Amino acid sequence: MSDKTTMRQPLDEVPPPAVAPLDPRLLVREEGLKGYLTEFKRKLKGGELGSLPVILALVIIWTIFQLKDSLFLSSANMVNICYFMAGTGMLAVGLVFVLLLGEIDLSVASVSGLAAAVFASLSVTHNINAWVAVVLTVLTGIAIGAIHGFFFAKIGVPAFVVTLAGFLGWTGLMQWLLRGTGSLTIQDKGLLHVLGQRSFFMNQSIAGAYILATLGVGALLVGSLIDQSRRRSAGVPFRPTGEILVRTVALAVVAYVAAYVLNKSAGVPNALVIFLATLVICDFVLRRTTFGRKIFAVGGSIEAARRAGINVAMIRIVVFAISGGFAAIGGLFLAGQTYTATLQAGTGNLLMLAIAAAVIGGTSLFGGRGNVWSALLGMLVIQSIQTGLDLLNMDQSIQYMITGAVLLAAVVVDSVSRRTQRSSGRA
């Protein structure tokens, strides 16, 4: 037989076409409850802890303080926790964006203090319309953040150094603006009234809290069903209807219980309503938009993001601008608590609490992992500690030590989780 003669494989021996492997998430969900337990164990072994550690920590903290003082879980104290966590929480939201890049912003506290001084100077000293003053104040924070981002992204100065310089510089500018009196009293009207301690949703109406709970539950249900339909049409894994209903019922229980507890006192503070609405919007931006996916891409791998055609410098500048804007908004929230702009605004442990809230809530210090709901969970932990220690008349030094220990524990969990994911090939 000639060398050019080719050997043909018999038709009955032709290998069958390759079958694409099914997504494991689809397989386990077909097993019902057993499948979900299997998936949960897989995530734990792979280091995907999610919000579980902080939720467990919150349960432990509430249990301890309730055993120490029966007033801790009272409706009045819960209203205080919900109100006072909103201001620092706004700073934490901006920091979540920066932390997702794997960077840090040390200027947010001083920017918040400067924002309060700018608003007071515009509205009180120069008699500018309060709402115009609010817009100018927020734009000031955005501009400051963009300046930090420019020096970091374009000049190459480390974010730590740029924002540390900003911390010092903007604190000095705040002191210069208040140099004449040392403080400015802001009238209890307009936005500052909405953010004040005496302002509640629908004027303390019982229906207000339940309306908010219904809106939240309805938004989750509708959004989940739309996402399910979109994913099914695209042929990618989607949540079964049963899982969506379980999630919705779980949120409904939490939301309506919270509404009931808050209604036993004064209702839902407007500051909390604005804070929650902000979290919903930011969560949508991060999870549902191209810009949000670019932030995660840059935080996960700068070089990979650059090769994918992402303008890394622009993303960095915009993210720091967002952080500055939220710092200014947080400054307005904090000013609304006292109706004053003082030299002490933005000082003390505010910066550390904002950073701790984002990290304790589950946002990674190493970038690429986290969400804005971290700000809510982290602030619940921190504000619960502060309020509980105040009820027990404990010294502030104890508060610092406990908060520091909780922060260290959160970072340790994050580090161990990343190491576990790396060893299991998921990082």
Could you outline the blueprint of secondary structure elements for this entry?
Elements: H1 24-29, H2 33-45, H3 52-68, H4 75-100, H5 108-125, H6 130-155, H7 159-177, E1 183-185, H8 190-194, H9 206-234, H10 241-263, H11 270-288, H12 290-300, H13 302-307, H14 312-338, E2 340-342, H15 350-360, H16 373-391, H17 396-423
Antiparallel strand pairs: 1-2
Helix pairs in contact: 3-16, 4-11, 4-14, 4-15, 4-16, 5-6, 5-7, 5-14, 6-7, 6-14, 9-10, 11-12, 12-14, 15-16, 15-17, 16-17
Task: Write a structural description.
- This protein is an all-alpha fold and 427 residues long.
- The chain has a domain at 203-268.
- 71% of the residues lie in helices and 1% in strands.
- It is built from 17 helices and 2 strands.
- It has a two-stranded antiparallel ribbon with strand order 1-2.
- α15 crosses α16.
- The longest helix is centred in the middle third of the chain and has 29 residues, at 206-234.
- The protein is globular and about 70 Å long.
- The termini are far apart.
